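Hi support team,

I submitted a single chain yesterday and got back a structure, but I'm not sure I'm reading the token output correctly. Could someone confirm the output below corresponds to the sequence I sent? I've pasted both exactly as they appear in my results page.

Thanks,
R.
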Amino acid sequence: MKTFILSISLLYIFSLYIYPQCNPVYTMGSNVYTCNNVAIETYSPSCEWSAAQKATIKSNLLAEYASLGITSDDILADASTTYNCHTYAWHLTEGKSNYVWINQFKNNGDYNIGNYWLGD
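Hi R., thanks for writing in. Yes, this is the structure output for that exact sequence:
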């Protein structure tokens, strides 16, 4: 019985190396700046989702929004832990090219993305 449990445990650990799963933890990254030079906090993920995880996310989104007529043609890119919709809507549209994760609020609760329209 001990051999069986040890074998199953080793197979499970080995499978994590073959099919690693990503549950990202975000840590404070470096700031990016608006066109008016206002600092925006960014966060860096501990890992990126695997191709299988991205495919699952895409499939789930398509199933959820199928009633609205959303198809795979409407998806611009795979899901990513590297950047989010705030980055796309505010940072990248200003002509920046670095992909970062931007939260709505700073860790202390102050506006973060709001600085794009509230900043000087």
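A quick pointer for reading it: The helical segments are 2-18, 51-65, 85-91, 115-118. Let us know if anything else looks off.

Best,
Support desk
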